[in-house]
Amino acid sequence: MTSLAFDYRRPDSVDQALALLAEADPGTKVLAGGHSLLPIMKTRLAQPGRLIDIGHLGELRGVHRLGDGGLSIGALTTYSRLLANPAITVYGLLADVLPTIGDVQVRNRGTIGGAVAHVDPAADLPACLLALDAEVVVRSARGGRTIALTSFFEGAFNSVLLPDELITEIRLPAASGDYGSAYRAQEQPASGYALAGAAVVIGRSTGGGGRFDRAAIGITGVGECPYRASAVEQEFLSSGDPAAAAHATDGVLVASDIHADREYRTALIRVQVRRALEAAIERVG
Amino acid sequence: MAIDALGASIKRREDPRFITGAGNYIDDIKLPSMVHMAILRSPYAHANIRSVDVTAARAMPGVIDVIVGADVPYNPLPMVWPAGGSAGLRNNVNSPRILATDSVKWTGEGVAAVVAETPAQAFDALAAIVVDYEPLPAVVDAEKAVAPGAPQLHENAPNNVVFEWSVGDSAGTEAAIEAAEVVVRQRLVNQRLIPNPMETRGDIGWYNPGTEEYTLWMSSQTPHIQRLLVGIFTMGIPEHKLRCIAPDVGGAFGTKIFCYADYALVLLASKRIGGRPVKWIEGRRENYQSTIHGRDHITYLEIAGKRDGEITGLRVKTLANLGGRLSTIGPGIPTTLYARVLSGCYKIPNVYAEVTGVYTNTTFVDAYRGAGRPEATYVIERAMDLFAREIGMDRAEIRRRNFIAPDAFPYDNPSGLGTASGGAKIYIDSGNYEPALDKALAMVGYDDLDARKVEARLRGKYLGLGLSTYLEVCGVAPSKWIGAVGEGWGAAMWESSNIRVHLTGKVVLTMGTSPQGQGHETTYSQVISHELGVPVDDVIVQHSDTQGTPFGYGSYGSRTSSVGSTAAIKAAGKIREKARRYAAHMLEAAPEDIEIDGANYSVRGSPDKVKTLQEIAFALDLAFDAPVGMEPYLDETAYYDPTNCTWPFGTHIAIVEIDEETGHVDLVRYVAVDDVGNKINPMIVDGQLHGGIAQGVGQALWEGAVYDDQGQLLSGSLLDYALPRAAWLPSFELDETVTPSPVNPIGVKGVGEAGAIASTAAVSNAVVDALGPLGVRHLDMPYTPQTVWRAIQTAKGGQA
Known about the structure:
The structure holds two protein chains of two kinds.
Chain A: E1 7-9, H1 14-22, E2 28-31, H2 37-42, E3 50-53, E4 63-65, E5 71-74, H3 79-84, H4 92-97, H5 104-109, H6 112-118, H7 124-131, E6 135-140, E7 143-148, E8 153-155, E9 158-159, E10 166-172, E11 178-187, E12 194-204, E13 214-220, E14 227-228, H8 230-239, H9 262-284
Parallel strand pairs in A: 1-3, 2-3
Antiparallel strand pairs in A: 4-5, 5-10, 6-7, 6-10, 8-9, 11-12, 12-13, 13-14
Chain B: H1 15-19, E1 35-41, E2 47-53, H2 55-58, E3 63-68, E4 103-104, E5 110-116, H3 119-126, E6 130-135, H4 142-145, E7 161-168, H5 170-179, E8 182-193, E9 202-208, E10 213-218, H6 223-235, E11 242-245, H7 261-272, E12 278-281, H8 284-290, E13 294-305, E14 311-323, H9 336-339, E15 350-359, H10 373-391, H11 395-402, H12 433-444, H13 449-458, E16 461-471, H14 479-482, E17 495-501, E18 507-511, H15 520-532, E19 539-542, H16 560-587, E20 594-597, E21 600-603, E22 606-612, H17 613-622, E23 634-640, E24 649-659, E25 665-675, H18 682-701, E26 733-736, H19 754-771, H20 785-795
Parallel strand pairs in B: 1-12, 10-11, 14-15, 18-19, 25-26
Antiparallel strand pairs in B: 1-5, 2-4, 2-6, 3-5, 7-15, 8-13, 9-10, 9-12, 13-14, 16-24, 17-18, 17-23, 20-21, 21-22, 24-25
Helix pairs in contact in B: 10-19, 15-16, 16-17, 18-19
């Protein structure tokens, strides 16, 4: 099919984009890589009256080191560009997962900001960014704010982003101490999205083989949006035992669909979390 | 002398244009003043239509015409293959309307059509059509549909039954089961599949007001048949007023054999608007609802025999879900093409099958790659495994024990093809099944299986191996059988070929068959190169246009290489004979003294007295020296009606590993030893096998149409319907035995469907074998992780 007719705007700068967003037309959508938005427009599941195309804005592209050692990733940085950047080698989780997202075309067009803004319940990247304690930097004509990703997602395809706000960058804190990470997911075979996926980062800030004092576990495909498995994190920090994975869905309404019902999905994410923890432990050494 | 092209793995001449975007598919065709059609499809699976209001749609920008059911003056679409042929078995027939009038029977049935200047305008106008539906309860499952109290779809089909058909010896099979030492019973579900050719369907209709003739471009496997079915059967247009053209076709798998409503709609629309061409292109989601589905059987099987492994009886009862209305040959698939080949490559003295065709509120079901034979192979190959397990016999051994012996051909299958036709009886003409089995077992290292299972358990995996020793019937079909009233579809299935050798010696081969990506232009050229002694590149192949090709029944049922090639070989023989006569004239010799070696025609004993085919063609074109009574030009047409089908067979073996915690099934090895007779192009044969195997594996592991109870198709797009991907499959290990078919002069059998027929059962048997130690003796497909996980949990007495 073809999409419904829409008004198309192509601002020349972020400021112009923010000015357009400030007009607060409720039918407005921001177009970046387009790999999520355009297909649902063609099937007419989404019928935005206006698209603001920011895909060409160079100021939102690129990766640079922050003063505190963290990493700033421009919202329009594609998966391919991010993967090619030497700075991400210290974030082993991204180096592992980015090459597995979609296919070459998706990785060449899909953007990190788009992945965060879209809040797909089963996308791989948001779970990884959760486990990496990412922050979302947003701007509007009114000003800017920085939001912890753990507070950003609100539900399926829904976030705290306000209608006049634009994601401009994703920030990752500096990696320090001994870290190990792993991502384990089982694909929904048709879509390639995760039926249940677990991104794990564990570490010892002191180094040298003591107890783990850091555990961050992002989960996707299971709840109505990606979430941190804090019950697993707490249990693991006290026990050091991957069996903590049994708490992977504590307090979560587990999704059920034609590919995986609630019972199977619950069992599956526990396995994925445990395996990811085991793999991460092995990597920390 | 050039290398003989027949049997050479030369590259497909079609591929450069296909893979560089230079093909000419239906949506590539843009005609002057062409307009676009979109079809409004029912959102309900079952509803009465109270009214359709198109007033607002007619006023939308760019809209030229809006058509509703009441505007269509034509018949419902033809259904040409009732169960039992036309001999009198009752078939409660309801075939699709061009557009629904008073009711809809599945989500996606066409209700109205808009013709507009652009596709987007046509889609926009669809949204402005107001249909007042009275929703009715729906039923999607065949077993539920025939149960008391089920929603009824059609007044003339009580209990939603299309037909009740049977084959074989009921009393003898009953007696065999009663007397048997062992009887194994099992319910099997062969789930509904959505075929998914890469190119969806589409068509362009053009009415020429000047000549009052119609032209229909269509993504079709059967342009000649459609000229009849759309033309005279549906619209009342005789053949000489309708031209059907199939341009490049991007895959079909059977779905493009049939007569669809849109063919008539684009022609009707073009006439209504005064002769502008009207294009309709099917979307993928639309394809999922408005193009045929495949399979969808529920089967109760009983297999009986002795403790020493001898099978004495097979009784099968199948419910075949045919959808909301009947597709063109829907009833023929689960009857003739399924139940008559149920005993496969085994000598089973007593076979009886009952098949009930059922209406449900789902998309219609018809032939999908293999068409009945994959379903039959699944039943018999699962049955052999179930019986072997019951008596504790090795699965290879029980197959060996029951194979039709190599000296038993031609074999008269007691429930086989043609037994009820009143026409020709069809025998299994050739076969030698054990060598293929032995070769495959050796390739896979069958003797080490137990050790590998133990090793896999140490890694948390269940390893399983599955055998499928399949028999296929293809190369359809002798008209004396398929056309007979008690069995077939009451029409012929011969093929045709025309060869013209032009002045320069270049050869134009014109065929009645119609490819969908198989590489016919390459393989036919190889055959004619061999027959006429000309280089492959000097032969071009024309096809798929009813203007300029002889009538042909099209390409499906793995029939092109066997039936089509034989017609071409016959035409080449006529060319050679005329060339011989003219060479004799040129060389002043008697025709019987002319020897033919490739393209050289020489006088016996005087090899220097020689004329080439090119010289002969040149002279016969100019014709000033032609003898009295000889027609100019080398131009010959031949028709060929086969004397039998062909009977490929082989052994496929799958090895799977199952993750015991997640239920994920990994296909780790796949070995196939196929006997498809001689090969025209081994590389193309391998390609067909690879694709077929992948497609059959897809059914076992991933694919399945899922409807909810209201008849909404939940697996409604490629986001929810999983197709096999190359990365999920191991490298297939292929080998062969060669038992040439005695039916045709080059001994080929056909290979379009073999892979898909064999592989589903091989993978299924492997998965059940893997889970065998847990006590699982059967599991229905597809083996999604959830299904397998639940089976493991249940077997372990877990929470599920």
